[in-house]
Design a protein that fits this description.
Number of helices: 3
Number of domains: 1
Structural class: alpha+beta
Helix content: 25-40%
Shape: globular
Number of strands: 7
Largest sheet: 5 strands, antiparallel
Strand content: 15-25%
Radius of gyration: 17 Å
Strand order of the largest sheet: 6-5-4-1-7
């Protein structure tokens, strides 16, 4: 019985561990209907921005008040990034390292649905990477 439980937990947890490993592949932050993507300097701010956008229960100028403080900033849609940490999180935010543009070299947090694997610069590397795509394909 113990062997069966151990096998079950390994089968359940192994994919989660693999998904949480840092990926070598490059990604882009992309928006379909806008030329800019909003990123945040910290996870809590990004989660608040997402909550505000979804529930609409925040002050109308919430994001505009954050811009001068540099807690949030915009990058061009299509900006290349590398995921820091892992793809598996219990949040809608993922930490990325920005590779290009005005904010190149900086770390930031992004809404995970704005993140797409960039297959043009790197080979399709690991089989489980396709599972993690957030574009519904």
């Amino acid at each position: 019985m113990k062997w069966l439980l151990a096998t079950f937990f390994v089968a359940l947890l192994l994919p989660l561990v693999l998904l949480s490993c840092t990926q070598d592949a490059n990604y882009t932050v992309t928006a379909v209907y806008d030329g800019r993507i909003l990123l945040a300097q910290d996870k809590e701010t990004m989660e608040r921005v997402i909550e505000c956008a979804i529930t609409r229960e925040c002050e109308p100028w919430f994001v505009m008040e954050l811009l001068p403080s540099r807690k949030v900033f915009f990058v061009k849609s299509g900006t290349k990034v590398v995921i820091k940490g892992g793809l598996f999180t219990l949040s809608d935010t993922i930490k990325v390292h920005i590779l290009e543009g005005e904010h190149g070299g900086e770390d930031a947090w992004v809404y995970d649905r704005m993140l797409y694997q960039d297959k043009s610069n790197v080979p399709y590397q690991l089989a489980f990477a396709s599972i993690c795509r957030t574009d519904g394909k």
